[in-house]
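Good morning C.,

I know you're traveling, so I'll keep this short. The sequence:
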Amino acid sequence: MNGNGTLKLYYHPLSFYSHRVLFTLLEKGLHFKPVVVDLMAAEQYQPEYLRLNPNGAVPTLQDGVKVFPDSSLIMEYLEDNFSGGKYPRLMPSDKSSEMYRKVQEFTEAFSSLNIPVFSYGTMHNEELRKNVRLPQLVLRARVQATSSMDNLQAVVDRAMSAVPEARPELEKKLEFFAGFTTDIRNPERYGEAVRGVEVYLQRVEDELITHVGDRVNWWLCGPSFTLADIDLCVLLNRIWLLGLEERLVTRCRPHLTTYLRRAQQRKAFQRVAAVPLRLRALMAAERAATYLPLAIGVGAVLAAAFGVYSARRAS
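The tokens, ready to paste straight into the viewer:
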């Protein structure tokens, strides 16, 4: 990742919604400075970060004095301000085109997915968690962290005292998390999240089936790679990380499987997919069991849960 530009991205390597922004930056070839916000050490609640993002979440993009605290808003900003010339477009310029309509439809369908419950519900499912591709210590820590609100409540209370102007957003966040920690252990709510992902993937499969003849090398919505493809690729990578690729992709959706193999050849896909697997903290956690137990309660749920919270605010 390039770090000599004016753009600064605050992110976490395991954050699903951070991956959306990373993918967009890399596809556009933008120079930016990546800044890891250590959720496990509660850095998202430090006063200096809360003043950038009162939600106490990732990702956040800073461009000079401009700050964008939401993945969808960031992607829109990058597309509006860094398209054309050496920066490839990720949205069709003709808003009346069929391709533009399809990108909009798939983007909206993606935004309706409950990725936090899908991700953490899988981790809480004893039968499925054995396939999750995370170090076991990290996986256990995340399961433990999402089983209780107690530690998060204490940390957020301190943050609200230190940065009073962030109180309204942090109170909304606590309310959201209260429901979230219940939903991920509720089989019905988890089932709804999985079915939502399945419906979206089948919609993708149905679209890909139509790509025949001169369309055989098209991406999801047309001949060029778009924001809809970024969303799909990030979801496919998360499905792999959760160990659900056979159930949701390779065993039942052949056209999507072919799409995935093709997408995996893109450099941006490879670099984003490698981010969580190369995170040194994860590997260090396997060797130093004292680190995570101290930190698991303060932010482990945030990387996934932020997505639904911010998407609903932006809609």
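Safe travels,
E.
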